[in-house]
Amino acid sequence: MAYDPENIFAKILKGEIPCDKVFENDYALAFNDINPQAPVHTLVIPKGEYISMADFSVNASEELVTGFFRAVGETARQLGLEEGGYRLIANTGENAHQEVPHLHFHILSGRPLGPMLSF
Ligand code: 5GP
Fold it and tell me: Which structural domains are found in the chain, ordered by start?
């Protein structure tokens, strides 16, 4: 599957669609989810055309992989989530119900989140 440069997060990265920005550096952009599932629900996306974790983990440069993961941690830090804790989710592909085909980590927090999965 090829990367779709018209996906919604690609448009946010290009500035064609606005977002509620939380953090940005050379490697990543973090913004609040439009349909939050918890009091804190922030998405972190890498700057680059990567569909999913499957794509990113193989094809991104060492510098981007490092920079992106540091940015995920930094975003959570800046949101003040380290003391209470937070959950990271990166849905990848069909079984995980990935809706937007640009890699994104969900940062969820702000209350006890309960068990990891509900079936
Ligand atoms: P996925 O199911 O792909 O892991 O999650 C996609 C997430 O993107 C969903 O939580 C959805 O609410 C969020 N989302 C979809 N479109 C937009 C948008 O235009 N702006 C923002 N901020 N979030 C979006």
Answer: 1-80 (3.30.428.10)
Ligand 1 centroid, distance to 60 Cα (angstroms): 22
Confidence of residue 116 (pLDDT cuts 50, 70, 90): confident
- Rounded distance between C-alpha atoms, residue 94 and residue 14, angstroms: 26
Residue 111: Cβ within 10 Å count: 10
The per-residue pLDDT for range 59-100, each reduced to its tens digit, is 999 999 999 999 999 999 999 999 999 999 999 999 999 999
Residue 97 a catalytic site member: no
Give the residue among 99, 100, 75 at the shortest CA–CA distance from 88. 75
- Beta carbon of 98 within 6 Å of any ligand 1 atom: yes
